[in-house]
Structure formats: structure tokens, C-alpha cells
Design brief:
- By secondary structure, this protein is of the alpha+beta class.
- Helix content is 43%, strand content 31%.
- A 5-stranded mixed β-sheet has the order 1-5-4-3-2, covered by helices on one side.
- β2 and β3 form a beta hairpin.
Length: 128
């Protein structure tokens, strides 16, 4: 019973941490590393999300673009590890730089901008 309570507590703490800016960036980087582009794109927040069908189409287009890039240039989209190298967190926005280390040892720095949506959740800023 005690072990079960510890496991439940750990899940609650982890799920709360996932809404932190660092948690969202870590999830996004992990999804990119795992080539789970749908889950990655589900972390996006668009400026205008009033038309759910339009948002769904945008997300599908981004997933397709990432998938095609991974098929054409797998060496550019295959990472063995990543680390946050810079962060600037404000009240409703955040900017991160993440270093991805490719399988061949080369590195790529990618910027990830976040915004806090109307529900108070941190999301990747997709703009438009």
C-alpha cells in the first residue's frame, strides 16, 4: 500500500511539473527525439484557435512536413540526446535554446518559444 501511495504521489508531481516551461520543452524535445511528431505538434498553441478544423489542418500539415523531412534527411532528424542550454522565463512567455546531439555527434541548437494559453497551460508558440 505504501509503495502504491508513493507511486501515485510521483505521478501527481510529475504531471504538475509537465506544465512548467521546462517540462513542456523537455516533452517537446523528447517527442522530436522519438519522432512522435503528432505529440510534438499537439504541444503547439496558435494565436487564433477559434476554428478547430483549421487548427487541425495546420497541425496535420506540420506533422506531414516533419515526417517528410525525417524520411528525406533522417540524419538531420535523428537525435541521441538533448539539453536545455539557455532559458528566459517571463510571466506569460518563455524562450529556450535546446541543443540536440545527433547520432553522428554533430549538434544543432533549436529555439523554442512558449506562451501561456488562456487555460494557464504552457504551450509551444506556433504564432499565426
Amino acid at each position: 500500500m505504501f509503495a502504491f501511495l508513493i507511486a501515485c504521489f510521483a505521478m501527481v508531481v510529475t504531471s504538475c511539473a509537465d506544465n512548467s516551461p521546462e517540462g513542456v520543452v523537455t516533452k517537446a524535445a523528447k517527442f522530436l527525439q522519438e519522432k512522435d511528431y503528432k505529440a510534438y505538434v499537439d504541444l503547439f498553441q496558435f494565436k487564433d484557435e477559434s476554428d478547430a478544423e483549421k487548427v487541425k489542418e495546420k497541425k496535420a500539415g506540420i506533422v506531414q512536413m516533419l515526417t517528410e523531412k525525417a524520411e528525406k534527411k533522417p540524419e538531420d532528424m535523428t537525435f541521441k540526446s538533448f539539453e536545455i542550454v539557455e532559458k528566459e522565463i517571463g510571466e506569460n512567455s518563455a524562450k529556450f535554446k535546446v541543443k540536440f546531439i545527433r547520432e553522428n555527434g554533430t549538434e544543432k541548437i533549436q529555439s523554442m518559444d512558449l506562451i501561456k494559453n488562456d487555460d494557464g497551460k504552457w504551450k509551444l508558440d506556433a504564432g499565426k
